[in-house]
Amino acid sequence: xxxxxxxxxxxxxxxxxxxCDDFFVLLNKNKSLPWFIVVxxxxxxxxxxxxxxxxxxxxxxxxxxxxxxxxEHQCDKINTASIGNVVSQLHVHVVGxxxxxxxxxxxxxxxxxxxxxxxxxxxxELPQKLRQALEVL
Amino acid sequence: xxxxxxxxxxxxxxxxxxxCDDFFVLLNKNKSLPWFIVVxxxxxxxxxxxxxxxxxxxxxxxxxxxxxxxxEHQCDKINTASIGNVVSQLHVHVVGxxxxxxxxxxxxxxxxxxxxxxxxxxxxELPQKLRQALEVL
Lengths: 137, 137
Prior knowledge:
2 copies of one chain form a homodimer. In chain A, strands 1-2-3-5-4 form a 5-stranded antiparallel β-sheet. Chain A is globular, with a radius of gyration of 14 Å. The first copy, chain A, has a single domain (8-134), classed as 2-Layer Sandwich (HIT family, subunit A), CATH 3.30.428. Chain A contains 3 helices and 5 strands; from the N terminus they run H-E-E-E-H-E-E-H. The model of chain A has no long low-confidence stretch (mean pLDDT 95). Chain A has 137 residues and is of the alpha+beta class. Chains A and B meet through helix 2 and strand 4 of A and helix 2 and strand 4 of B. Strand 4 of chain A pairs antiparallel with strand 4 of chain B, so a sheet runs across the interface.
């Protein structure tokens, strides 16, 4: 497998929570919303260009992340999206939304979201919690 | 199967292109961007609450719609998203984007997009074209 390099804008905006053979699971540094970003470790810009096998794995991973968000945060809605107009490296957002969140009911992209950071403690605990929820990683 | 009723806001904003047992394929009335909306005919608000079988069918349909957009319109990017903050009835957007489109690189949701309508001719031809591209419907 050739080396995969995360787009520097994604790397800059997120904490790396998990890394397995085929995916990174990233966390948006802004804690104002629970917001994961999944990046398949392949040179692709569209999810439907992935192999059938990777598409299935990706869907499975997104589903588990969404269920994790619902369970951990009792989100009112999950927003799942593959956009990539600014950062073309394929990445998929899974965002937990609440009726009372600062942007509701607007989408989160291209909006100003008040910044709040994760604590060291939260960042050290999340990967283990997530690993259990995702089972596969 | 119980009768399924499309949310009136979705019905109002779109043309119904295709309807099969499990899905509606809708077209945003605004021609400024090629924009499909897929609605599974079940009472659900989240894609990951669908049965495994329907999730696979949905992914397959979204992939074919995206490929259709690329082939027909030579889109620079496809935006795929399940949001549902305003209309909670489960629906998934597949939007063809262009580097020169009026909203690029912003997302399309919550933005003012100049309106342009489809002709009667286009609306009568599209379902047949799409049926061929999707094969299954």
